[in-house]
Amino acid sequence: MGREGEPWVVMKTARAPSNIAVIKYWGKRDEKLILPINSSISVTLDPEHLSATTTVAASPAFHSDRLWLNGKEVSVEGERYKNCLREMRARATDVEVESTGRVIKKEEWSSLHIHIASENNFPTAAGLASSAAGFACLVYALAQLMGVKENYEGELSAIARLGSGSACRSLLGGFVKWNMGQEADGRDSIATQLAEHSHWDDLVIIIAVVSSRQKETSSTSGMQESVRTSPLLKFRAEEVVPKRIEQMEKAIKSMDFAEFAKITCADSNQFHATCLDTSPPIFYLNDTSRRLIGLVERWNRHAGEPQVAYTFDAGPNAVMFARNKEVGAELLKRLLYQFPPSSDADFSRYVIGDQSILESTGVTSLKDIDSLSAPAELSGVVNPPRIPGEVDYLICTTAGKGAYVLDGPHLLDPVSGLLP
Ligand code: DP6
Q1: Which of 18, 219, 317 to mutate to test the pocket of ligand 1 (most atoms within 8 A of CB)?
Q2: I need a labelling partner for 17 at 20 to 30 A (CA). Which of 128, 216, 313, 385 fits?
Q3: What is the CATH number of domain 10-198?
Q4: Is 165 in the pocket of ligand 1 (CB under 6 A)?
């Protein structure tokens, strides 16, 4: 930060988590404002394992708004970025730059250009919704930089929503509801927290990242096609989801795992049924996804009550919830038994994230997997498929907190405001 008259750069860095919907958002009633045809509920994933980190900087020396995603410069000209930046600039306030005492006036923000650098802490190729974490993080970081004060609860989530619908749920931690809202301008289409992550802290989440060679239909265009052509989607939004939202809110409040699991699986399956009901049909699940569903369904039936729930977004990866740590370790053992890594895989890279679950399985090497015995529910199943390498890797995590500020390190050079 220079003296008066010298070039200066101000910056802030924030982190925002990914989230996984347990009642899915699929379909918009307004494409520009990103207003959904139904409310949705999600679980925020621990930012330690699945999050975006974003640095935003402003300086009179910048000539244009610029954006770097995972180290590569990309265009910031898309409507979604422009809408988020415009709405944040409109809400900027006078900000005192701590180190110099200089005040950036409210009016100055409309002419100051912004540099943005963002990266994910999980492999981008994994096809795990990164836009939700990314847009939530952008809006949260800009709010810190520009001194934006929310005029009403949820205002920032309504701006993140303009970047990507599911992003509005990533600002908050724990269990989050996105109210579809009624207003034409979208001001009531906001996210609210149902419960903190600490409210239900024994849930374990395991994500099976499934190899996919196929180019998937993006959520944005997939849901457009479904709205246009699927009669099942209309029925779902009007008749099924409103009841499920109520039931899911109750299940979360009372930590009723059986109910949570039943609704989560049913809603994922209905979402994929609406994809199949779309013309031409959209297939996000593949054979591996179906085998993962089989593993959970067979186990739950054998146990007599749900131990694990699964849900799939617009891709083949499974997100599974285990009712507690013990069941989480049992789930991981079953996954390792039925979906072992390929023989040349590096075991230390096969199970990533929270290592405490892996530790409680006692499995420490590829050799240990070979000596795992078949789970009871597989007895009587002749030659259950065990195809090494079918699953790319597993991420163990839990529900986590929402967006927060990081003191550093920044992703942009503090003097030049460019990638270091
Ligand atoms: C299947 O939020 O990615 O993950 O609003 O067009 O950016 P846009 O779509 P996006 O859709 C997410 C769809 C989903 C379900 C969900 O997260 O609720």
Answers
A1: 219
A2: 216
A3: 3.30.230.10
A4: yes
